[in-house]
Amino acid sequence: MSFAPSKKKSKRSKIVVGTVTLTSMMDMFTAILFFLLASYSAQGDILSVDPRLKLPVSTSTQAPRLRLIVQATSNDIIVDGMRIADVKEALTKGELIIKPLFNELNEQAKKTEFIASKNRAVKFTGEVVIQGDRSIPFVLLEKIMFTCGQAGYNTISLAVTSSRE
Question: Is residue 18 situated within a structural domain?
Answer without folding.
Answer: no
